[in-house]
Design brief:
188 residues, alpha/beta, 6-stranded parallel beta sheet, 6 strands
Length: 188
Protein backbone atom coordinates (compact mmCIF):
# COMPACT_ATOMS: atom_id res chain seq x y z
CA UNK A 1 0.00 0.00 0.00
CA UNK A 2 1.31 3.42 -0.93
CA UNK A 3 2.33 5.48 2.08
CA UNK A 4 0.25 8.57 2.63
CA UNK A 5 2.01 11.90 2.51
CA UNK A 6 2.58 13.72 5.78
CA UNK A 7 0.74 17.05 5.89
CA UNK A 8 1.77 19.41 8.72
CA UNK A 9 -0.75 22.14 9.48
CA UNK A 10 -0.24 25.17 11.68
CA UNK A 11 -3.09 26.17 13.97
CA UNK A 12 -3.18 29.88 14.94
CA UNK A 13 -4.19 32.17 12.07
CA UNK A 14 -4.28 29.15 9.75
CA UNK A 15 -7.06 26.98 11.20
CA UNK A 16 -8.56 29.43 13.69
CA UNK A 17 -8.83 33.19 13.94
CA UNK A 18 -6.32 35.17 16.02
CA UNK A 19 -6.53 34.33 19.70
CA UNK A 20 -4.16 37.18 20.57
CA UNK A 21 -6.45 39.75 18.95
CA UNK A 22 -9.37 38.56 21.08
CA UNK A 23 -7.36 38.67 24.30
CA UNK A 24 -5.73 42.04 23.59
CA UNK A 25 -9.15 43.58 22.83
CA UNK A 26 -10.63 42.12 26.01
CA UNK A 27 -7.76 43.38 28.14
CA UNK A 28 -7.54 46.88 26.64
CA UNK A 29 -11.27 47.32 26.01
CA UNK A 30 -10.52 48.00 22.34
CA UNK A 31 -12.05 46.88 19.04
CA UNK A 32 -8.95 46.30 16.95
CA UNK A 33 -9.38 44.18 13.84
CA UNK A 34 -6.68 42.38 11.86
CA UNK A 35 -6.77 45.25 9.35
CA UNK A 36 -5.13 47.41 12.04
CA UNK A 37 -1.97 45.26 11.95
CA UNK A 38 0.67 44.43 9.41
CA UNK A 39 3.14 42.86 11.82
CA UNK A 40 2.88 39.53 13.59
CA UNK A 41 3.01 40.69 17.22
CA UNK A 42 -0.47 41.97 18.04
CA UNK A 43 0.41 42.11 21.74
CA UNK A 44 2.86 44.93 20.97
CA UNK A 45 -0.27 47.04 21.63
CA UNK A 46 0.10 46.23 25.33
CA UNK A 47 2.17 48.97 27.00
CA UNK A 48 5.33 47.40 28.50
CA UNK A 49 4.34 48.48 32.04
CA UNK A 50 1.07 46.54 31.68
CA UNK A 51 2.56 43.30 30.32
CA UNK A 52 2.64 41.51 33.70
CA UNK A 53 -0.98 42.38 34.34
CA UNK A 54 -1.89 41.28 30.80
CA UNK A 55 -0.41 37.81 31.34
CA UNK A 56 -2.03 37.56 34.79
CA UNK A 57 -5.41 37.94 33.06
CA UNK A 58 -4.55 35.95 29.93
CA UNK A 59 -6.36 32.83 31.12
CA UNK A 60 -9.34 34.49 32.84
CA UNK A 61 -11.35 33.00 29.98
CA UNK A 62 -10.31 29.78 28.21
CA UNK A 63 -8.57 31.44 25.24
CA UNK A 64 -9.67 29.00 22.54
CA UNK A 65 -13.07 28.01 23.86
CA UNK A 66 -15.24 30.00 21.46
CA UNK A 67 -12.66 30.98 18.91
CA UNK A 68 -14.01 30.86 15.34
CA UNK A 69 -12.50 28.79 12.56
CA UNK A 70 -11.06 30.47 9.52
CA UNK A 71 -13.57 30.03 6.70
CA UNK A 72 -13.57 26.52 5.27
CA UNK A 73 -10.83 25.17 7.56
CA UNK A 74 -12.83 22.45 9.27
CA UNK A 75 -14.42 21.10 6.10
CA UNK A 76 -11.10 21.19 4.24
CA UNK A 77 -9.25 19.37 7.03
CA UNK A 78 -11.88 16.67 7.10
CA UNK A 79 -11.35 16.03 3.38
CA UNK A 80 -7.56 16.34 3.55
CA UNK A 81 -7.46 13.92 6.47
CA UNK A 82 -8.86 11.19 4.21
CA UNK A 83 -6.02 11.59 1.72
CA UNK A 84 -3.09 12.69 3.88
CA UNK A 85 -1.54 11.85 7.21
CA UNK A 86 -2.48 15.11 8.95
CA UNK A 87 -0.40 16.50 11.83
CA UNK A 88 -1.22 19.69 13.68
CA UNK A 89 2.03 21.54 14.27
CA UNK A 90 1.57 24.48 16.58
CA UNK A 91 3.42 26.59 19.12
CA UNK A 92 1.89 26.95 22.59
CA UNK A 93 4.53 29.26 23.98
CA UNK A 94 3.74 32.86 24.86
CA UNK A 95 6.82 34.55 23.41
CA UNK A 96 6.82 37.40 25.92
CA UNK A 97 6.09 35.21 28.95
CA UNK A 98 7.12 31.59 28.25
CA UNK A 99 6.65 30.47 31.87
CA UNK A 100 2.93 31.44 31.69
CA UNK A 101 2.25 29.11 28.76
CA UNK A 102 1.10 25.87 30.44
CA UNK A 103 -2.65 26.43 30.12
CA UNK A 104 -2.25 27.24 26.45
CA UNK A 105 -1.32 23.60 25.76
CA UNK A 106 -4.49 22.40 27.49
CA UNK A 107 -6.72 24.97 25.88
CA UNK A 108 -5.46 24.26 22.38
CA UNK A 109 -5.55 20.49 22.87
CA UNK A 110 -9.16 20.64 24.11
CA UNK A 111 -10.22 22.84 21.19
CA UNK A 112 -8.72 20.42 18.68
CA UNK A 113 -10.26 17.33 20.27
CA UNK A 114 -13.68 18.95 20.55
CA UNK A 115 -13.87 20.72 17.20
CA UNK A 116 -11.81 18.48 14.93
CA UNK A 117 -12.72 15.04 16.34
CA UNK A 118 -11.66 13.24 13.15
CA UNK A 119 -8.00 14.14 13.79
CA UNK A 120 -5.76 11.82 15.78
CA UNK A 121 -4.59 13.52 19.02
CA UNK A 122 -1.42 11.42 18.80
CA UNK A 123 -0.57 13.62 15.80
CA UNK A 124 -0.70 16.94 17.61
CA UNK A 125 2.79 18.45 17.78
CA UNK A 126 3.15 21.38 20.16
CA UNK A 127 6.43 23.14 19.41
CA UNK A 128 7.82 26.47 18.25
CA UNK A 129 10.78 24.66 16.71
CA UNK A 130 8.99 23.55 13.58
CA UNK A 131 12.28 23.15 11.73
CA UNK A 132 12.81 19.84 13.55
CA UNK A 133 9.57 18.43 12.10
CA UNK A 134 9.73 16.48 8.89
CA UNK A 135 6.98 15.83 6.42
CA UNK A 136 5.93 16.36 2.82
CA UNK A 137 3.82 19.51 3.08
CA UNK A 138 3.70 22.38 5.58
CA UNK A 139 0.86 24.90 5.71
CA UNK A 140 1.67 27.89 7.94
CA UNK A 141 1.02 31.63 8.04
CA UNK A 142 4.38 32.47 9.64
CA UNK A 143 7.12 32.74 7.01
CA UNK A 144 9.91 32.11 9.53
CA UNK A 145 8.60 28.59 10.03
CA UNK A 146 9.65 27.57 6.52
CA UNK A 147 13.23 26.66 7.36
CA UNK A 148 13.12 22.91 7.06
CA UNK A 149 13.53 20.59 4.10
CA UNK A 150 9.81 19.99 3.73
CA UNK A 151 9.31 19.89 -0.05
CA UNK A 152 5.95 21.66 -0.34
CA UNK A 153 5.67 24.91 1.60
CA UNK A 154 2.33 26.70 1.55
CA UNK A 155 2.13 30.15 3.17
CA UNK A 156 -1.37 30.83 4.43
CA UNK A 157 -2.21 34.42 3.46
CA UNK A 158 -2.56 36.53 6.63
CA UNK A 159 -2.49 40.14 7.87
CA UNK A 160 1.20 39.99 8.83
CA UNK A 161 2.64 38.31 5.71
CA UNK A 162 1.09 40.48 2.99
CA UNK A 163 4.28 42.55 2.61
CA UNK A 164 6.33 39.53 1.53
CA UNK A 165 7.12 39.71 -2.17
CA UNK A 166 6.86 36.89 -4.69
CA UNK A 167 10.68 36.98 -4.98
CA UNK A 168 11.12 36.46 -1.24
CA UNK A 169 8.70 33.55 -1.31
CA UNK A 170 10.32 32.02 -4.38
CA UNK A 171 13.80 32.23 -2.83
CA UNK A 172 12.60 29.92 -0.04
CA UNK A 173 10.46 27.71 -2.27
CA UNK A 174 7.23 28.94 -0.72
CA UNK A 175 3.85 29.33 -2.41
CA UNK A 176 1.21 31.72 -1.04
CA UNK A 177 -2.27 30.24 -0.63
CA UNK A 178 -5.39 32.38 -0.39
CA UNK A 179 -7.49 30.35 2.03
CA UNK A 180 -8.72 26.79 2.41
CA UNK A 181 -10.54 26.60 -0.91
CA UNK A 182 -7.26 27.36 -2.63
CA UNK A 183 -5.45 24.72 -0.54
CA UNK A 184 -8.02 22.09 -1.54
CA UNK A 185 -7.57 22.99 -5.20
CA UNK A 186 -3.84 22.35 -4.86
CA UNK A 187 -3.87 19.28 -2.62
CA UNK A 188 -7.04 17.37 -3.48
MG1 LIG B 1 0.17 30.53 12.76
Amino acid sequence: MEQRKKLLVDFDDTICESVTLTIVNRFLGTNYTLQDFDDYMIDDKIPPEKLNEYFEHYFDVDPYENLPFIEGAKEALEKLNKKYDVYICSSCILTKSPASSAKLFTSKFNYLVKNLPFLDPAKFIFTSSKDVCCGDILIDDYFHNFKSNIPTKLLFDSYHNKKLTEEELKARGVQRVMGWKHICEILL
